[in-house]
Amino acid sequence: HRRAYPLQQESLTLFEEVQDVSGMAFSHTGLGVVAAADGDYAQARAHFEASAVIRRRLGYKGFLAYSLGWLALVTLRLGDLAAARAALEEGVAVRREIGDTGGLAASFEGLAAVAAAQGQAERAARLFGAAERTRERVDVPVPDSELAEYRYNIAVAQAQMAEAEFTAAWAEGRAMTLEQAVAYALEGTSDSG
Predict the structure, then answer these.
(1) Confidence of residue 192 (pLDDT cuts 50, 70, 90)
(2) What is the pLDDT of residue 105?
(3) With contact defined as beta carbons under 8 Å apart, do 172 and 122 qualify?
């Protein structure tokens, strides 16, 4: 990562010199990934925010969803739950628009993690259930590299409520259609569960 960062920074400088805005977005994303891998979440956040601004302006929705997913991850790790939720909710809307069902599942899981961190275990369980069912629909399991964090976030939510209630809420999420899950995800924090 230490070798990649200066190369990514050089590419950003070159793209800025030739005023290649799309290239600048890619360089910011690369810089953000490297910073996140090094645990510098504040630096990663700045790069993902810059990338998202450019991609919104250019209308690159697939790449915007990617930047928002990373932005949500690093803001969640920084403890900025409001920013994580906002990035995830925007990501849900964008991913639904472009038909990225696997990405929707990841966004539901992110929103579930935010809900669990906010003490909204019932909402978290429903979102985890909806995410699980969404992944099954497109045969996209949770990546191995994300399993530990995924299991941790589930455990945080489970610890906040009785097992039977958690299981029932999870089943409610699994029973949602994709459209219902999207609508539920975009409800924000109106559910006090």
Answers:
(1) very low
(2) 97
(3) no
